[in-house]
């Protein structure tokens, strides 16, 4: 086996007993940067319960990792609409918009997330987008 070959983690082949197991396993896969494998678990679970916020959050994260920004944006907008106090969804939506070269639209979401979470990465994203907008004007 060469040093550049990756084998799929064992967790992919574990039998799933419901969307609770799918959530747990998909989260583990996303942490390890296996978004395609995570999506293969998330999609069937969402077919059972399409309103499950946790699964929608994981699917948005997987789409972000795969740079499927339109799909990520749709899921994140749905999450923000359901819960406007979800700082992670607000930040994710801002990042997705920023990555789609829509910094003016992203800034409001990023600012809200930064104020709500007081997270350094969220504050850095606000600064980065503000600087980008200042250079463009």
UniProtKB/TrEMBL annotation:
Gene3D superfamilies for this protein: Tetratricopeptide repeat domain (1.25.40.10)
InterPro entries assigned: TPR-like_helical_dom_sf
Name the UniProt record assigns to this protein: Tetratricopeptide repeat protein
Organism: Nocardioides baekrokdamisoli
């Amino acid at each position: 086996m060469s040093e550049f070959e990756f084998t799929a983690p064992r967790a992919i082949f574990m039998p799933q007993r419901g969307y609770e197991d799918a959530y747990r396993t998909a989260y583990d896969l996303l942490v390890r940067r296996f978004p395609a494998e995570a999506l293969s678990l998330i999609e069937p679970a969402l077919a059972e319960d399409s309103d499950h916020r946790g699964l929608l959050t994981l699917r948005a994260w997987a789409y972000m990792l795969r740079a499927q920004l339109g799909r990520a944006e749709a899921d994140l907008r749905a999450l923000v609409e359901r819960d406007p106090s979800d700082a992670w969804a607000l930040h994710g939506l801002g990042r997705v918009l920023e990555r789609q070269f829509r910094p003016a639209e992203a800034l409001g979401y990023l600012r809200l997330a930064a104020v709500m979470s007081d997270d350094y990465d969220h504050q850095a994203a606000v600064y980065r987008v503000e600087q980008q907008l200042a250079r463009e004007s």
